[in-house]
Amino acid sequence: MRHSSFSADSIYPRPLDAYGWSAELDDHFRSVTDAPTVPGRVIRVDRGRCDVVIADGDSGVTVVHADTGPVADPDPMRLPCTGDWAAVSVGAAGTFVQALLPRRTAMVRSSASQRSEGQVLAANVDTIAVVVSLDTEPDLGRIERFLALAWESGAQPLMILTKSDLAEDADAVRETVEQAAPGVDVLIVSATSGEGMDILAAVLTGTSVLVGQSGAGKSTIANALLGRSAMEVQQTRSDGKGRHTTTTRELMPLPGGGVLIDTPGIRGVGMYDASEGLQQVFSEIEELAEDCRFRDCEHVAEPGCAVIEAIEDGMLQQRRLDSYRKLVRENQWMASRSDARLRQERLKALKTQGKEGMANMIAKRG
Fold first, then answer.
1. Directed axis angle between helix 140-153 and helix 170-179, to 10°?
2. pLDDT by residue (tens digit) across 49-105?
3. pTM of the full structure
4. How far apart (Å, rounded) are the C-alpha atoms in residues 344 and 347?
C-alpha cells in the first residue's frame, strides 16, 4: 500500500504542491517501483544520503534523512541530485530512496574527474539564474558557458547582475552582457538597496536555481528572496575573488510560491553535450552561417564566409566568434571522450555477460 493519506484513485500529495508536485508526476510515481513508497523531493544530497521532503498527513510536510543505497550507480548522472523527485520508503528498517522519477530538465556540466562524465547540478528546474557581480568586470566567456549549459538543460536562462549599489554604470554593463546573452532577460538587482528585487521575486516561479562564481552574491540574493538568513554570507576577498559560502546545493520554498536552489560557487564550467545550448547562445553566428558558401565552413578563411564578412563589416564582434570556436571545439572534444568511454563500458558489459564474440566484433569495427 502507498502512503495512507492518498486515496486508491489518486496519489496526488497536496502538501507537496509548494515544492512543485503536479498531477503529471502521479503517473511517473506509479511506474517507478512496486515497493511501498511515498513521493518526495530531494532538497539536499550529502555522501550517500539525502534530505527529502515528503507529505505528512493531508496538510503538512516533513523532511526525512534517506539512504540512497538502492539507487547507487557508477554513473554520476544517475545519482540523486537536488531537485529530483523520488519514491521513498519509510519504515522500521530505515528510510531509503527506492527510485528516482524521470527528470524533466537537468543542468549538467562535465565533472572534475578525468573520466569525461557529466555532473548534474540541479534537476527539474524551470529557471536557471546566472548570477554575476557588478563590482568587477564581467567575464563574458564564462557567462556564455553558463548560458550554454542553461539552454541545454531545457530550462529558461536568466541573467542577474548583482550589487548594483557598487557599480559605477550598471546600465552600461547590462548592455555588454546582453550582447553575450541573446534571448535572455538581464536584471539589475541589489539585495542591499532592494533595487530590482521585487521584479526578481516575480519572475522566479516554479523551481529556480542560482548559479555563478563564488562571491557573486548568490547567498545574499537567496536570503533576500527567502526573507530570512537561510544561507551563510561572507565578504568578498580583498583581491576581488569570491569566498565559498554555500557548500552544498539546497532547495528551499519561497514565501511567494515556488522553490529556490542555491548552489556553491562554480569555478569550472566545462561543456557537456551542449551543442543545442551553444546554438542558442551564439544564435547570431548560427544564422550568419546559413549564408556561408560552404556548408562545412569553419569561419576561418574560407571564401564566401558570411561570418567573416560580418566581422569585417563590424556587425559581429571578433570576441564572440573566438568564444564560439573555443566552446564548440571543447564540446566536440568532450563528446568524443564521452562516446569512447561509453563504448568501453559497453564492451566491458558484454564481456561480463559472456558475449566475448560480440564484444570482439564491435572492437574490430572501431
1. 60
2. 999 999 987 778 999 999 999 999 988 899 999 999 999 999 988 999 999 999 999
3. 0.84
4. 5
